[in-house]
Amino acid sequence: MAALSSPPSLRHLLLLRPRLPLSPTCPAGSFSRRHIHSRCRLFSSAASSSTLTHGDAASTHGDADGVVDVNPPRGTRDFPPEEMRLRTWLFDQFREVSRLMAFEEVDFPVLESEALFIRKAGEEITQQLYNFEDKGGRRVVLRPEITPSLARLVIKQGKSVSLPLKWFTIGQCWRYERMTRGRRREHYQWNMDIFGVPKVRAEAELLHAIVLLFQRLGITSSDVGIRVSSRKVLQAVLNMYSIPEHLFTEVCVIVDKLGKTTREEIEKELVSTGLSSEAVQGIINVLSLKSLSKLEEVLGSGVEAVADLKKLFSFAEQYGYADWICFDASVVRGLAYYTGIVFEAFDREGKLRAICGGGRYDRLLSTFGSEDIPACGFGFGDAVIVELLKEKGLLPDMSRQIDDIVFPLDEELEGPASSIASSLRKKGRSVDLVEDKRLKWVFKHAERINASRLILVGNSEWERGMVRVKILSTREEFEVKAGELE
């Protein structure tokens, strides 16, 4: 590989075939929005007038003219290349943390049985289902969360797997809900779950995974905190006031709205369940505590919730993430199946909704008719974390990057150019094979896609079995034997 003593002549580099003429039926500049729409009149007026089943009044995916609306359904997203690169990068971070934590990846269908997600809890999620009857008369749903699908798979696997199970997945979820910043009707969610570990060590490991991710993304404990509590705290308070067990789930759903609605509204809803005013005030007072030592004063050190939380905070010191977590008794999480420690991550500036959340759910499997296994896990959505990274200026450069552009300078050299591109791709390099363009366009294209090298296949070089290579970052040029390209 010898560097050329002088650059090739301009005439030599511009031995290009002329541009192919445009079709007379598609003159340059003719692709206006009107032209595109006229080509897309594929739906009848009847089809374009169908409305959403969940009540977006008069919402259609077309107009009276039959012109297709190019926007995706409200609350959903397209992923053009740059945004797809960001999504892939984020998912790679999820997978790498999962690998570091020795979790295995699993997946499930996005379409599930409706019965898997209908529970007697008055949960908001049951009112947000994208559910319908399929052509076989079965009630199905686009999954709104992943944990029930995971539980179904654990039951299906049965005794063929040994405990503990440490599984993760990255899946799409659907909820028909009011949209705010970081909240859409579809999102992707990273779930990590542990089955078969009854002790707080499992929660400590999950919190460690969350913190590891934040650290990999450049987020610090001054940006984000993780509120921690336990469902057993609320259970202990209800026991103090002799409140019936069957009201526990309903009370959880109500108090999960603390911070999202007024205290007066919370109190009113609690009274409507049949609780006394004294019990309501006791619940609100305990759930307002932000100190674990104060909680211990109220409930006593012998209460299981206090012992679990003290152990978890001790683990946090040992793992080195104690500055990330704080006790907050108001955290109960809205899903009915949680049974013990619960947690959620939040941005300390308070601009965004919860970044992620999870907890222990030891009794979920029995709701599906199986034997219970101790379990805990979390869900971490893609939308809020991207908003936070934007807020903090931490989004990575998502520019496209290509190793090589191979460009034949003559039509007769398209075959050799194809051979060179194929050889480089087999060696693991990303190669864009370009033809029928002017050299000026090729250089601009190389800049747009951040190509590392431009490989020119010209007649005089090819006759000698050589190609010309231009290193685009340094402008260095040289000839090399085609078979020695690496």
User: Percent helix among the residues?
Assistant: 25-40%
Low-confidence stretches: 1-60
Strand order of the largest sheet: 2-6-7-12-11-10-8-9
Mean pLDDT: 84
Number of DSSP-assigned strands: 17
User: Judging from the principal axes of the Cα atoms, what is the shape?
Assistant: elongated
Which structural category fits the helices and strands? alpha+beta
Radius of gyration over C-alpha positions, nearest whole angstrom? 30 Å
First and last CA, distance = 11 Å
The number of helical elements comes to: 16
How much of the polypeptide forms β-strand, as a percent range? 15-25%
Largest sheet: 8 strands, mixed
Describe the structure.
- With 486 residues, this protein is α+β, with helices and mostly antiparallel strands.
- Helices cover 34% and strands 18% of the residues.
- The chain contains 16 helices and 17 strands.
- The strands form 3 sheets. An 8-stranded mixed sheet has the order 2-6-7-12-11-10-8-9.
- Strand 10 and strand 11 form a beta hairpin.
- Helix 4 packs antiparallel against helix 6, helix 6 crosses helix 12 and helix 9 crosses helix 10.
- The longest helix is centred in the first third of the chain and has 20 residues.
- The N terminus is likely disordered.
